[in-house]
Amino acid sequence: MAGQGATVTDLLLVLPELENGFLQCPQHIHVQNSAWRYYCHQRTHSAVLDEIVDWLLSETQKEIDQLNDLATHRGWYGIS
């Protein structure tokens, strides 16, 4: 917030800060995909748990779409 420093992070974790301009990536840079993956294990299935998992998947996809739009607008490449 002070306008100084650098970070290496998953861009989805700082998406609001990128959109609001608090964090910046240089234009026309290659953004590397992370080897990190998110997993969800359901020991049991129920309508409530299925609904929560569907909601999490939907919200994550929305954020990925937002990040892809931001990357296109700002000239970043390598995001998929």
Task: Record the SSE blueprint.
Blueprint: H1 15-19, H2 47-74
End-to-end separation in angstroms reads 28 Å
Write down the secondary-structure element order.
HH
What structural class should be given to the helix and strand makeup? mainly alpha
Proportion of helical residues: 40-55%
In short:
The chain has helices at 15-19, 47-74. It is mainly alpha-helical and 80 residues long.
Search tags:
single chain, 80 residues, mainly alpha, 2 helices
Describe this structure in words.
By secondary structure, the chain is mainly α. Helices cover 41% and strands 0% of the residues. The chain is built from 2 helices and no strands. The protein has helices at 15-19, 47-74. The longest helix is centred in the last third of the chain and has 28 residues, at 47-74.
